[in-house]
Write a structure and sequence with these properties.
The structure is a single chain. Helices cover about 40% and strands about 15% of the residues. It is of the alpha/beta class. The chain has a six-stranded parallel sheet with strand order 1-2-3-4-5-6, with helices on both faces.
């Protein structure tokens, strides 16, 4: 598990620019819910102005999360446009549709396909949900790796998250050959923050641990609620994808 040199250089450059511009608190990461700019079940964007604002943002990283981006047929074209603008994109998904839609994306050093996996053991996930969603997420990760994509896992911890299950998952993770692992608090409570800080010791790479802290800070700055991102929920079937319909001009 290595932290990409290109991403590291981009973050350093942004910090230096912020220092000289006296903008020390400027976010390095913009957070976007795909539902804010793309219709679910349609290839057309909600707002061209919003998309242009995203492209013009000085933050070097765009994190697309919240509702599952793969619910939106236009997401692949949007991601490609942002990555080509020079920004890094972390596309966070439950992973259950990733294998089916991987062909719509193009591998890029700027793109991390990020699968959201809660701190549950594989056995617990099967027992509670019984739909094989955990296995689908792992299949999506493997398909992404075989297709040449950078991949990451994001574990978001609540106050009641079980760290023993996360430790069990860390053993499985060592055999998945992902590029990164991020662990963050799901909400801005002292308990969740302390739990995430403790859990980050499981991440084998120090740069990914530091990056997790930054992701947590910037995401929680725009989302104060303890919103549970349930990776194993039952999801509706997506509409047929025609991502070429999203025009950015």
């Amino acid at each position: 598990m290595r932290f990409p040199a290109l991403l590291s250089a981009k973050l350093v450059k942004a910090r230096v620019a912020g220092f000289f511009q006296k903008a020390h608190s400027a976010p390095l990461i913009d957070f976007l819910d795909a539902a804010e700019v793309l219709h679910s079940g349609s290839e057309h964007p909600v707002s061209h102005e919003k998309i242009r604002g995203i492209l013009d943002s000085p933050a070097p990283i765009l994190w697309i999360g919240g509702s599952d981006p793969l619910d939106h047929p236009g997401i692949a074209h949007l991601v490609r446009a942002i990555a080509q603008s020079g920004r890094f994109v972390f596309l966070e998904t439950s992973g259950t549709r990733l294998r089916r839609r991987i062909h719509e994306f193009q591998p890029s050093p700027q793109l991390f396909l990020t699968v959201r996996i809660a701190p549950q053991s594989p056995a617990a996930a099967r027992d509670i949900r019984g739909a094989g969603a955990f296995e689908l997420a792992l299949e999506g990760l493997r398909a992404a790796r075989l297709s040449g994509f950078f991949t990451a896992i994001h574990s978001s911890l609540r106050e009641d998250s079980d760290l023993s299950q996360l430790r069990e998952f860390s053993i499985l993770l060592s055999g998945l050959d992902v590029d990164g692992w991020l662990i963050t608090a799901a909400c801005a409570s002292d308990s969740a923050s302390r739990k995430a800080t403790e859990a980050r010791k499981l991440i084998p790479n120090s740069q990914w641990r530091k990056f997790s802290t930054r992701v947590e800070r910037d995401i929680l700055s725009v989302s104060k609620s303890c919103d549970v991102h349930d990776s194993f929920r039952s999801e509706p079937q997506p509409a047929p994808s025609r991502e070429e319909g999203v025009h950015i001009s």
